[in-house]
Specification:
It contains 17 helices and no strands. It has 406 residues and is mainly α. It is globular, with a radius of gyration of 20 Å. The two termini are 36 Å apart. 56% of the residues are buried.
């Protein structure tokens, strides 16, 4: 499957994308509104960054205890319930006079339930599409995420000029309800991909199995750490340029869209694996110059160029799928999304702390330098493993690795 026409002729692919688009729009508008609300109330770059990216950090707990549900629960029910839970939580965040402590309690709960979403959504996409359509479909999924972020942050920034942050949070809650409705009416009820009840022991056993392969470990680290450090730096846009934060987030989404379109549609499959390290370096290097405090225009250009590097995740996800048996795909993708989200939350905490001690511009450059260093180390470790044979039984469909069971 190499054309967009054949991709969109696939049953359920369009409603799948529409439900995700509504959910992503709610996240961007709601996240920007919440970060602005907390920054106006506290004046703290740290608390503003954590309020926007705290749910990602909380996903680490959900990934440790709940992730087996990504394969052991019906995917439509999981995604519908997740959207409803986020709608309720976002409506609570819009309550006048809500203490900052209560804001972070809601953010924690949202992160816990969100841990199921990445695996359930990724596994469902893998079921909807054929094997040869996964990379193209995932690139469209990522491109939609970029477009939605671009439109959501631009719209959110404009709405915050006209409306209060609490009104924007209510709009986000309505978008979550729309996502739940499209999911429930547009997708087919499917059985779980794996047998057994979701449980903490099942989650731990399968996570341990996925982590036991060195090639998978390096792939996961490549997906998580460089990305998390840069997104942590991105969480400082509100404190770095309060009046232009929406513009910077929109430019980042534009760069992400371009990168995913080029890598997913135009780059030959044989060339894609070679791009993982160059793209991760591109993701970080432009931010090294933020220590010079460029103006909004130059910052927007740098953010756009750097965000093309987010396409490295598409390359590394393809590698992860080639190393994972079919019956573990949901939890493997869930572990990827949860780990990436958690590292983004850690990055936001680290970046916010550095910004408190130095400045937002300096903190963003320090996070970029750390991302470059990690990328180079992982590239060296990958070259060291280059001559080793592929771990047997880890291609999709191969079963020499036992599936985790209850």
């Amino acid at each position: 499957m190499r054309s967009y026409r054949s991709l969109f002729r696939t049953p359920e692919f369009t409603p799948f994308l529409l439900s995700f688009a509504a959910f992503a729009a709610a996240q961007t508008i709601g996240g920007l509104a919440l970060g602005t609300l907390v920054f106006r109330a506290t004046g703290s770059p740290f608390l503003s960054a954590v309020s926007m990216f705290g749910p990602q950090l909380a996903q680490l707990l959900g990934g440790a205890f709940l992730l087996s549900g990504a394969d052991r629960l019906p995917p439509r029910a999981v995604l519908t319930g997740l959207a409803l839970a986020f709608a309720a939580g976002t409506a609570v965040l819009a309550l006048p006079g809500l203490p900052v402590r209560a804001v972070f309690a809601v953010v924690l709960l949202q992160g816990l339930v969100a841990s199921l979403g990445g695996g359930a959504r990724g596994g469902l996409l893998n079921e909807i599409l054929s094997k040869d359509g996964y990379v193209l479909g995932r690139s469209v999924y990522n491109m939609l995420w970029g477009l939605t972020q671009m439109a959501g942050f631009a719209t959110g920034g404009a709405l915050l000029v006209l409306l209060s942050p609490r009104a924007c949070l209510l709009l986000a809650a309505a978008l979550y309800l729309l996502s739940a409705l499209v999911t429930r009416l547009g997708l087919t009820a499917r059985p779980p991909r794996s047998f057994g009840r979701p449980s903490v022991p099942a989650t731990w056993r399968t996570n341990a199995l996925l982590w036991s392969s060195r090639p998978r470990r390096l792939t996961y680290l490549g997906l998580w750490v460089p990305n998390g450090l840069i997104v942590g730096g991105d969480s400082l846009y509100v404190s770095y340029a309060p009046e232009a934060a929406g513009t910077l987030y929109a430019c980042g989404a534009l760069g992400m869209f371009v990168g995913d379109m080029v890598v997913g549609r135009l780059v030959p499959p044989a060339l894609r694996p070679r791009l993982a390290t160059p793209l991760r370096l591109l993701l970080a290097v432009p931010y090294l110059f933020f220590v010079l405090r460029p103006g909004v225009a130059l910052s927007a250009v740098a953010v756009t160029v750097a965000s093309v590097g987010f396409a490295a995740s598409l390359v590394l996800q393809e590698r992860l799928m080639s190393l994972t048996p079919d019956d573990l795909v949901g939890q493997a993708l869930g572990l990827h999304v949860t780990g990436m989200a958690a590292l983004q939350g850690v990055g936001a905490v680290l970046a916010g702390t550095l910004a408190q001690l130095t400045s937002p511009a300096t903190a963003m450059s320090l996070m970029a330098a750390a991302s470059v260093a990690v990328t180079l180390v992982l590239a060296a470790l990958g070259r060291h493993d280059g001559g080793r044979p592929t771990v047997p039984g880890t291609r999709p469909g191969a079963r020499s690795e036992p599936a985790a069971t209850e």
